[in-house]
Amino acid sequence: MRKIDLGFVGLRPPSEHPHVSGLEWECVAHHEVVVVLPAKHPLVKSRKIHILDLKPLFFVTMSEEGHPGSRRWLNTLCHEAGFTSRILQDVELESGIMSFVAEGLGVTLAREPIKKLPHAGVVFRPSADSAKSEYWIAWHRENVSKALAQYIRIVKEEAPAWD
Predict the structure, then answer these.
(1) Each residue of 45-64: pLDDT tens digit?
(2) Percentage of the chain with pLDDT > 70?
(3) Strands (DSSP E) along 13-121, which ranges?
(4) What is the maximal distance between C-alpha atoms in the chain?
(5) pLDDT tens string 3-17
(6) pLDDT score at 27
(7) How far apart are CA 68 and CA 82, in angstroms?
(8) Which pLDDT value is given to residue 19?
(9) DSSP 8-state secondary structure symbol assigned to residue 79
(10) Exposure string for 73-108, b = 16+ CB within 10 A, e = fewer
(11) Can you list the domains of the chain with their CATH numbers?
(12) Nearest to 70 by CA among 7, 9, 11
């Protein structure tokens, strides 16, 4: 039974996730990746940070349950930089990431719009690796509603302004 008409998904989950079948997917935005650091971390002195510089650090990430694909996304970025991420904690909300990072319990990689959620004790730095993140929407294939089609069109037109 369908419960929603359109979902703002963020990262597209891997196709093997059971709840992604029967959905249409559309990437509506691309964002730069930023590094989220505790304010007192030595790396905040750098204007840009290479992802490889994060190799010895622990990471905080969004939970797979609430944000399918987030761990794979983080692991892929770290793997492309030449290392395996060490994940200390999964959280449900971006505010949880901010709290853990502010307390010095880890760092994270995130989409640039996270900077709109400032949090005391956290510093954002651009990635020096030109890493990007996509932002996706999804809807049920069987839904042929004109209102949904118009809403999807509006989202696709407005999404580039979210960058």
Answers:
(1) 999 999 999 999 999 999 88
(2) 90
(3) 23-38, 58-62, 86-91, 108-111
(4) 53
(5) 677 888 777 766 655
(6) 85
(7) 23
(8) 57
(9) H
(10) bbeebbeebeeebebeebbeebeebbbbbbeeebbb
(11) 6-162 (3.40.190.290)
(12) 11
Question: In angstroms, how far is CA 37 from the centroid of its own chain?
Answer: 15
Structure tokens at 13: 């989950």
Q: Are 101 and 125 in contact (CB under 8 A)?
A: no
58 touches 1 (CB < 8 A): no
Burial 116-133 (b: 16+ CB within 10 A, else e): eeebeebbebbbebebeb
Q: The tokens of 62 are what?
A: 């969004």
- CA 76 vs. chain centroid, Å, equals 12
Supply angle C-alpha 156, 158, 161, rounded to 5: 125
Percent of the chain topping pLDDT 90: 44
